[in-house]
Sequence to fold (884 residues):
Amino acid sequence: MRVALSVALAATATALGACSATSPDSGGGPPEPSEQGITLYSGRIPSAIGGAIDMYEAKADRDVQVRFGDTGDLAATLVEEGDNSPADVFFAQEPGAIGAVAARGLLAKLPRDVLDRVPPQYRDPEGGWVGITGRARCIAYGPDVSRSELPPSPLDLTGARWKGRVGWSPASDSLQQYVTALRLRYGDDVASDWLEGMVANDAVDYPDNVAIRDAIANGEIEVGLINHYYVAQAIAAEGPDYPVSVYFPPAGLGSLLLLASAGVLQSSDRKEEAFDFLRSLLSPESQRYFTSSSKEYPLAEGVKPDPTLTVPLSGIPAPRGNLNDITQIQATIELMQDAGAL
Amino acid sequence: MEAGAGAFGDAAAPRGRRSSLLSRRRPPLVILLAGVAIGACVILPAAYLVIVVAGDLGPALDTALDSRTAGVVGRTLGLAAAVTATSIAIALPIAWLTVRTDLPGRRLWATLCTLPLVIPTYVGAYLFVAALGPNGLLRDALGVERLPSIYGFSGAWIVLTLFTYPLVLLPLRSALRRIDPQLEDAARAMGRGPFQTFRSVVMPQLWPALAAGGLLVALFVMSDFGAVSILRFDSFTQEIYISYKSSFDRTATAGLGIVLVVLMLALLWIGSRIRSARATHRLGPGPARPPRPYALGAWRWPALASCSALVLIALVLPVGVLVYWASQGISAGSTSLSLAAGLAANSLMTGIGAAIAGGLAALVIAVLVGRYPGPLTRTIERAGHAGYALPGIVVALALVFFATRAVPILYQTLAMLIFALSVHYLPLAIGPIGAALAQVSPRVEEAARGLGRGPTEVFRTVTAPLLRGGILAGAALVFVHAIKELPATLILAPIGFRTLATEIWNQTSYGFYEASAIPALILLLIAAPPLYLLSERGTVAS
Fold:
């Protein structure tokens, strides 16, 4: 017992030593500034935000502390922490999560100049959060489908041609936001009919967008409803022969824009620094980083999207109504459950 | 202290004498206090659910009593029952073959058959899809058009069985090893065949181990998120996840969590019924003659074939895919080995911390339950299972709730993470320690008391050292699970603290499977030695 304990303690000490020697930083960027800066809760993984954090750290000479996690988990954590949260900034991958945090009064009102960096449709009407980047919904398709076969709207995927050949992810936020947008634009009946039609047409469930993309790539399904940048990233990584292509349907909100957005916590005692961090995320160089590395649409005015994004931002409908409104998402979930999609 | 314990003992004496010999004494105050403190810690997740639900009873009840919830309960229990049944069906023959027969290489087989436990279900599930999916490696190898679907119930069933059956195998092997062979000899001498002997003599003595292992598997299935989300089975954890995502309304989620706790209590009750109904009298403690291994004869070929098939599917195939991906990742330059070393150090530190804390806490609880059975000690033990049956995210949020209010200084420190993981995995350690305790005759302790030692001193100098093997086994199980854990680690780790598990999450969440293979392989390498020791413990008589 005593021997085992001392072995364990020695191992712990060794591990501690090894750890302090090789402590992994937030993404292999330049050396960290010595002065501690804001604390960020990031719903995006290091490789999708690390470069933008490095840029801010270099400019501000502050070391940003980042907690990476699932956006929903982080939102639930923020709600649980309440006024005691160590976080200064929340960067949410999905709007529902930041909307839920805002609805509890946990977000500070952002300064006018931060909000004004993006067009009005890409920010919180109440001023609690601001969109940083956007990704478009699309129909991804594999080599067995020719472009001319693809319907003008995802609403047409309930046809016999697509029976058992469409992948979707009812449990993912992105599909739920799409359904919310459908409800707000065309009404609950249209959304409900479509959901029932998809279920009746044997649409195949996947847990997330990546799984749908991979399932198209390996031939499990022919088409899928996903966000465009998963395909764009795979093409960037695997080369132009990657077997999945992207199509932006012109009708039925088929290429709806979804926002990744950020806000500052009301409980933060570093609000000015936190606002500066958002200004940095919306600066032209950070916006160019986002669009070139993760193939998203930059939302700050005056920054051009990556050349691989062939459809301009103006050609992609922004959601009508507030997708961050959590009561709307709850209504969507109920509708999806009633239709048997969830 | 001494006087206090004496007073307790005197007060309890008259009632104790009428019940069993073991409950004659009240536990020493220090151990009792430690047990109550541990009980208070492990009940935190359940307490959080009660606090949240009590604050807003209506919506919570609506969710808990929803007709949808009934369906989810049915599906989850169905999956738990199926996985437990197949785990036992796999573990029972393997345990017997590797402990009681002359199977060639049985020590090696024992280790190989235990190792699948190191594979996290979220890794196992995506490997399973890659290998056996509608368009996976197997389809390519067979050259067929389409394989039967692996999604839904069947996929979750297979994957959870493959990567959790060792939880039954481990206690079964150590129980088999403890059985006094003289009973079997007697049965054989009276003309019973080997199978009849097994059924009538050996099997009854294995029920407690089967119940304990089966319970761990069933509760694990109820709390698992990795496999069910990837394999698209709508179980309880999936429902809890959707409930969070849809509303971030913790009341509805807590309602579901309470239902899960009630299910857990029901399973614990069934488990304890099985154990007490089948309890066999302990045989005299003297050193048992090592059992003579059954000669398998020609049966050894099918036995070897089954072991090989199991190891191939549950270990070689997943590790093979990981090695293949890792080689791709290294050649693509996407994997940094020095980064991986730092991650491994962080995982080790977390796992060892949780193993020590969990092992010590489990020791206290096992001794209280084993030596001083009573309503209080049983309550503490049952409450301790709540942290294991609840999904990691619920355990994490409960600790966020309490820590930010009560001990903000500890919030998101390594100590906090280790605390959370040992609360989450405590029941894994109680089993092996309890089994080891059952082998130590209380008379040894009584003799030490008779020689004038105080109860606390007896615990420290006699009981605990005799349980060394059990404590190490329990701690090893906590270690293996702690380094695999994901949701609580993401939320409660110190800021910027990345482990092998968080790195796997980081890479797979965007589909970078090649880059995730190196941390996954290192995770398996770190978890393997403790499991090797565990399986050796079952083979070599102490």
